[in-house]
Amino acid sequence: MNSRERIVHTLNHQEPDRVPFDLGGTGLSTIHVTAYKNLRHHLGLPEIEPEVAFVPEQLVRVDEDLAQRLEADVRPVLPETASSFEYVFRDEGNYEAYTDEWGIGWRMPREGGFYYDMYQHPLATADSLEEMKAHPFPDPLDDGRFATLREQAEAAAPKGKAVALAGPCAGIAEVYSWLRGYEEYYVDLARHKDWVGTMLDRLVEFKSAYWGRALHEIGDLVDVVVEADDLGSQHSLLMSPRTYRTVIQPRHKRLFSFIKEQASVKVFYHTCGAVRRLIPDLIEAGIDILNPVQISAADMDLRELKSEFGRDLVFWGGGVDTQGVLGTATPPEIKDHVRQNIEALAPGGGFVFAAVHDIQANVPPENIMAMWEAWQEYGVY
Fold first, then answer.
1. Of 30, 49, 113, 316, which is most buried by a Cβ count within 10 Å?
2. Domain residue ranges in the chain
3. How far does Cα 143 stand from its chain's mean position?
4. CATH architecture of the domain formed by 3-87+127-378
5. Contact 53, 31 (CB under 8 A)
6. Residues ≥6 apart with Cβ < 8 Å to 204
7. Which regions of the chain are under pLDDT 70?
8. Per residue in 77-93, pLDDT tens?
9. Who's near 82: CB < 8 A, 6+ residues apart?
10. Claim: this prediction has a pTM higher than 0.90
11. In the β-sheet with 95-99, what is the strand arrangement from edge to edge?
12. CA separation (Å) from 356 to 127, 182, 318, 319, 369?
C-alpha cells in the first residue's frame, strides 16, 4: 500500500496497513526552522538552508530527503507569492518588520525572536462599512500564485504520495480579525455583524476565485484542501455557538460547498482550542477533517471525540501534545503518550498521525524521534 492509498483509505474511514504519518504535509503540521535544522543535524542529513514557506511562524517546507527518511505520507502544494507582491524587510530598531500583501504589519525581535507578531492592523480605526468596503484586497488570480502548482503536485505522484493543497491566506474569520485587530473584531461580532458579514463575503469571493482556478488546474492530483480559522481558546470557544452559526457558518458552507463542486477533494479544517461544542456545526458546514485536535484544551478528550464524531470526521493531528509534552517530556514519556493517543484515534481508520499543530523551535530532535518511533511501533493495524 503506498502513501496515497493509505491516505485515501483513512479519509474513507477504512483501516489501511498503518496509520498515515504527516510531517510537513500542510502549513499546520510542519516544523519551525530552528527545530528543523536541529533534526536534520541529528539525523546526519546534509546541512542546507531550509525554505521558510510560512514567514510569520518561521515554518519550513520539509525537504524530500527528510520526508523520505521519516516515511511521511503527505506532500504539500503551496501557492507561490503573488507576482505583484514582494517581501520587504525593514529595520525598526530592536525589530525586523515587514508588511504583507493585505497591509498587515508584522515584526520579530532581533534578539531571541522566533516568530513575527502582528502589530499593525489596517482596519483598526475604520468606523464605517464604507471604509471597510474600500480596503483593497490582493488579486486572488495573480498568475504568480499558480506558477508551480502542477509542478509541485506532479512531483508527489511518482512517489505515490498524497497531496494537500494550501490556500492563498488564512481563514475568512482569521483574516478579518487580522485586518481589524482582535479587540475590534470581537466588538464587531457583538455590535457590527453587518460589517463582519460584508467582509467575510468579500473573503469568500477572494478564496473562491483562488480555489476555482487552482482546482481547475490541478484538482485531478489533489486529495485534500486546507482551510483554517481559530475558533477556540485553551478553555473555551472564542465566540458563542450562536454567533458562529449566524455570522460565520453560512459563509463556511458557501465556501466549502464551492470547493467540493470543483474537484473530488476533502476539506481539511484547522481550528485550535476547545472547540468540541462547535464540531457538529463544523460538520454541518462541510468539513471532512479536523486539525490539530488540541488535546491539551478543555473538553477535548480523544476517546470521547472519536466515539462522538469518528463516523463523520477524520482526525488529523492529536498524535502528540506539542504544548505540554513534546518539548519537555522524556523520550519514554513521549512514547507512552503517543501510544495512548494512537489507541484512542486509530480504530476504524479516520486518523492521520501528526503533532498537535506545528513542532516548535524548542523541541529537541531526540523527542521528535521518540514520537516517530512510537508511531512506527504502535501505528500498525
1. 316
2. 3-87+127-378
3. 23
4. Alpha-Beta Barrel (3.20)
5. no
6. 172, 251, 254, 255
7. none
8. 999 999 999 999 999 99
9. 101, 138, 139, 142, 144, 145
10. yes
11. 90-92, 95-99, 105-109, 117-120
12. 38, 24, 5, 7, 16
